[in-house]
Task: inverse folding
RNA sequence: GCCAAGGUGGCAGAGUCCGGCCGAACGCAGCGGCCUGCAGAGCCGCCCAUCGCCGGUUCAAAUCCGGCCCUUGGCUCCA
């Protein structure tokens, strides 16, 4: 049984065959560092993470690249809110993304390239396209000539005759064909370009625009276009042709389409072999999105539900579906996760007790473990059907419960294999944390420590240093080390 | 208008590629029983589905073909 995936490029389910036998080159279109990551972003990250983990499970060596777009007018529009200039705002959100990714228990990518550190590669690629006749300069900007690329539109089936003009009036005037798109944009950022993305507490548009970064190029001072970055960064770190390109389904056109056009015209090689697109999280029958202001930030969701519940929610729909984010669906995910976790814990407790024997075979449980493994693997290989794979795991929980309920003497080898299955499939592949304290418990512990620290701060302010020290010592006895710093107290669990 | 993906029980959501094992999975909610000092957890069972509509192909269709209706995403920054 080999892995099959649905390829947006062909619209069909295909056998997965990497360019190199044992290695998989994976790219995910990352986020623009202009807003906090929300649940929709977290879902795409998590499904990509599960793909990575499944490829690991199958024995592939995965090279995983995921970019941060740190040059964009939306970032400039946040100047004054969380930073003094474009680069500063970008740093702020890049940091917050990294923290969210850690909190979500995502496997680290091999490279997190940023646009600002790949300007040379971007310029080189644009030059190649100009030299080869696929792009032209106009008023210091460079545009991709869609009519020069016979394959244009092959991902999204767009007909360039039907496409509406992109860009503002000035830009349209500079283009030969309305469907042409910018590879390089002359000058900085115009205040009116960031006006619509501005929040009330941001700096005035004029002032913010001043902080936009620009770079020297053969066509004069300017900034990279919207789509060229992903082409430059992916080919730099993965080569001209790589295996899997993941992105949200909202990026199919024009972003991914343009990536293909630029890359294949520049390198003469196939770009990505398999295109996987994740669905859009729905909130009240509408896409969750930063601009619609209907989003729950990844951070808030992790704080409210915990990573395991959130990951269970994500994995309970196939990656390509548009799942409903609501109180009901998250409550259901919570029930599912608890059922799974309880099943795991019962298996561990039964296996680690004196009532577990080597000579008490329970064929029902033994068969259930086998079925779980084969069903899970078949589901994952069938276009990464995490929903079905999860069902297999939940069936295992039922089998464990039935075994422990019905018997006084347990089948140790079978229980051990059940525990292994939970840990390898639910833990390693789905990234769920069996065994350890769950997110909720950790948060309560942290809240309690903060509560004590608040009390201690009150004593200190009142000058009751003896009492304050007693509280610190009491925490220390519990294995919580408190240190005072300029920014207030910090602590860590020993 | 054009492109793409969908429409499956009260909710949510697999199955559709490769028609029959789908008399429709897993789960949530609801109901009954077991267990139980109570509750919870768990176990067993049940309830709720003319699989968007109409027509066609077939011994057989949720699954294939045609038409229509509706939803979501894209065509503008977007996971």
Result:
């Amino acid at each position: 049984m080999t892995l099959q995936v649905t390829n947006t490029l062909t619209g069909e389910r295909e056998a997965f065959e990497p360019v190199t036998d044992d290695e998989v080159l994976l790219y995910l279109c990352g986020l623009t560092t202009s807003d906090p990551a929300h649940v929709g972003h977290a879902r795409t990250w998590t499904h990509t993470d599960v793909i990575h983990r499944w490829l690991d499970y199958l024995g592939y060596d995965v090279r995983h690249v995921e970019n941060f777009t740190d040059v964009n007018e939306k970032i400039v529009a946040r100047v004054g809110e969380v930073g003094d200039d474009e680069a500063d705002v970008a740093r702020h959100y890049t940091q917050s993304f990294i923290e969210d990714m850690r909190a979500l228990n995502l496997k680290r990518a091999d490279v997190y390239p940023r646009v600002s550190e790949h300007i040379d590669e971007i310029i080189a690629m644009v030059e190649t396209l100009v030299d080869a006749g696929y792009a032209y300069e106009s008023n210091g900007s460079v545009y991709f000539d869609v009519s020069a690329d016979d394959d244009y539109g092959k991902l999204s089936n767009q007909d360039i005759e039907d496409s509406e003009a992109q860009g503002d009036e000035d830009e349209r005037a500079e283009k030969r064909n309305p469907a042409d798109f910018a590879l390089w944009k002359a000058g900085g950022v115009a205040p009116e370009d960031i006006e619509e993305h501005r929040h009330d507490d941001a700096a005035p548009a004029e002032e913010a625009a001043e902080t936009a970064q620009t770079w020297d190029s053969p066509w004069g001072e300017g900034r990279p276009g919207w789509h060229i970055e992903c082409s430059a960064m992916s080919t730099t770190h993965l080569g001209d042709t790589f295996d899997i390109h993941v992105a949200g389904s909202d990026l199919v056109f024009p972003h991914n389409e343009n990536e293909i056009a630029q890359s294949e015209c520049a390198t003469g090689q196939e770009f990505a072999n398999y295109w996987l697109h994740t669905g859009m999280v729905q909130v009240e029958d509408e896409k969750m999105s930063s601009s619609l202001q209907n989003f729950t930030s990844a951070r808030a969701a992790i704080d409210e539900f915990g990573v395991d519940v959130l990951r269970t929610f994500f994995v309970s729909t196939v990656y390509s579906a548009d799942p409903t984010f609501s109180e009901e669906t998250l409550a259901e995910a919570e029930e599912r996760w608890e059922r799974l976790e309880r099943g795991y814990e019962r298996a561990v407790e039964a296996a680690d007790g004196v009532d577990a024997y080597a000579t008490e075979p329970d064929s029902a449980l033994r068969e259930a473990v086998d079925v779980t493994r084969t069903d899970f693997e078949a589901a994952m290989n069938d276009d990464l059907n995490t929903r079905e794979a999860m069902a297999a795991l939940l069936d295992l929980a039922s089998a464990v419960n039935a075994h422990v309920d019905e018997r006084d003497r347990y089948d140790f080898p079978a229980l051990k294999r059940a525990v292994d299955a939970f840990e390898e499939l639910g833990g390693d592949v789905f990234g769920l944390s069996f065994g350890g304290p769950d997110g909720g418990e950790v948060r309560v512990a942290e809240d309690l420590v903060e509560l004590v620290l608040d009390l201690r701060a009150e004593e200190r302010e009142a000058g009751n240093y003896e009492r304050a020290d007693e509280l610190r010592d009491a925490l220390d006895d519990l294995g919580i080390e408190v240190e005072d710093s300029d920014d207030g107290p910090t602590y860590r669990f020993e």
Observations:
- Chain A is about 45% helix and 15% strand.
- The longest helix of chain A spans residues 327-351.
- The CA atoms of residues 384 and 390 of chain A lie 11 Å apart.
